[in-house]
Design brief:
Elements: H1 2-5, H2 10-25, H3 33-50, H4 53-71, E1 93-94, E2 97-98, H5 104-130, H6 135-152, E3 153-154, E4 159-160, H7 187-195, H8 201-212, H9 221-233, H10 237-245, H11 248-254, H12 282-291, E5 294-297, E6 302-304, E7 314-321, E8 324-331, E9 337-339, E10 345-347
Parallel strand pairs: 6-10
Antiparallel strand pairs: 1-2, 3-4, 5-6, 7-8, 8-9
Length: about 350
């Protein structure tokens, strides 16, 4: 969102380095396990948008600590079995449990999906700094996907379980004891499985359609970022992504000075505030998807564009880049008018798909 709105990622880089220092102090442990893995994806995204290899070099020691810690959570089944918690998944109550800190049966698949994505990001970042890709992270990523398929995919339903109902007494406060009775196919696990390649091809598209139909339960604005990335990756943004983005219209109409943190109150007496930036993913998703943008070389040195209005009548887009403002004027039935800053090479041969998150 900072890139789309301001074109200045110095604060993002500062925060990435701050988290890296924290990981070094805590031997790779963040309070929210999912946020630790998402930090690796965030690092990859900021590097891709800025081309700042020094940022990657500064953070690689912390990334190694993070992945070493997560490798210690992998159990005999070959997937994450015993982290200190399964949080954060989303700001929802499901089956009387909060997805802020769910039990294994509600959080295991989601965390394994983010783990697979973080391993891929780590391999890409290591290759960017060292010039060669070491196989360890890629091999672990493949292993996690295969083991997750064996343990967590329900062939009869054609869907991913949220997690296993295996015995787990839990840990104080942040990892509830596992309810063995619970066997659920939720939207969050299935969206992430489609995004991070645990399901692929037509299976992934079918799963994503079911997940975003409401059949598998609701998601909140924070998690919608991952859902929108999945629709782009699988070529379903026009079909599924645009309707999802329209869910923000009532929120903006209700308050034009901030975005409500959710659509579904996580409790009967809960009142949403309007100070959570996590609800602002349309600021990124709309311009990037309408442009059909892919950054092919870090720092916008080479990009691909495939503009598409996805049923809109028009769009005017001014997207900041390290080289200046990329401008597009899109009108239904007309060729796009594009103004590309010097220093950016444009390719039109690459189909659009998700590459962030």
């Amino acid at each position: 969102m900072e890139q789309a709105c301001f074109g200045d990622l110095r604060l993002a880089a500062h925060d990435l380095r701050g988290v890296a220092r924290m990981l070094e102090v805590t031997d790779g442990r963040l309070f929210h396990t999912s946020y630790g893995l998402i930090w690796a994806l965030w690092l990859r995204d900021v590097w891709l948008l800025t081309g700042d290899s020094s940022l990657v070099s500064d953070c690689l020691p912390a990334l190694d600590l993070l992945l070493r810690r997560f490798a210690s959570y992998v159990g005999p089944s070959g997937i994450l079995e015993n982290p200190p918690d399964w949080m954060f998944i989303d700001w929802l109550i499901v089956e009387d449990f909060s997805l802020h800190h769910p039990p294994r049966a509600l959080g295991q698949t989601a965390l394994n999906c983010w783990y697979a994505g973080a391993l891929d990001a780590a391999a890409e970042l290591r290759a960017a700094v060292d010039g060669i890709e070491t196989p360890d992270a890629r091999n672990m990523s493949k292993s996690i996907r295969a083991a997750a398929r064996a343990a967590l995919f329900d062939d009869n339903a054609g869907l991913w379980l949220d997690g296993l109902g295996t015995p787990d007494p839990g840990l104080p406060r942040w990892r509830p004891a596992n309810p063995r009775r619970l066997r659920r196919h939720g939207a969050h696990a299935n969206i992430l499985a489609a995004l991070f390649g645990l399901s692929e091809g037509e299976e992934a598209r079918t799963i994503l359609r079911r997940a975003l139909s409401g059949e598998l339960g609701p998601i909140q604005p924070w998690f919608a970022h991952w859902a929108l990335e999945a629709t782009a990756k699988l070529g379903l943004f026009g079909e599924l992504g645009m309707p999802l983005l329209r869910k923000w219209i009532p929120s903006v109409e209700a308050c034009d000075k901030g975005l409500a943190e959710g659509w579904h109150a996580p409790g009967p007496n809960y009142a949403f505030d309007h100070s959570h930036a996590w609800g602002g993913t349309p600021a990124w998703q709309l311009p990037v998807r309408l442009l059909g943008l892919r950054v092919l070389e870090p720092g916008f040195r080479r990009i691909a564009l495939s503009p598409d209005l996805f049923g809109l009548d028009w769009a005017d887009i001014d997207l900041p880049t390290p080289c200046g403002i990329l401008r597009a004027r899109l009108r239904a039935g007309r060729d796009p008018e594009l103004s590309i800053p010097s220093g950016i090479a444009v390719s039109t041969a690459v189909a659009p798909s998700a590459q962030f998150g």
